[in-house]
Specification:
Length: about 110
Amino acid sequence: MRPGQTVVVSGTTVTAVAAGRVTPAGARIIDAGGKYLVPGLWDMHVHLSMAGREALPVLLANGVTAVRDMGGNGPTVMAWRTASSWAGSTGRGSRPPARSWKAPGG
């Protein structure tokens, strides 16, 4: 843990992390005091076709921005990735032998 940090985000990318308050001109300030900031999480062992497409927004709501599907129904899962990606994003990252899926910025 590193209390008292400033995190600068441009679009969906963290561009700087610094001790204390460092505020670029024109920046929108969000006071996250008392909160935690964690990177997007990977779930490295999911069975998406068993959980169903409705699992995607639940995963995102819990900080999981990327998954590795372990032997589910590949064509079904890849069709979800192609059609809607994850929660309306443009998911990327399919890599054999398992199928990977990540939300933008994840």
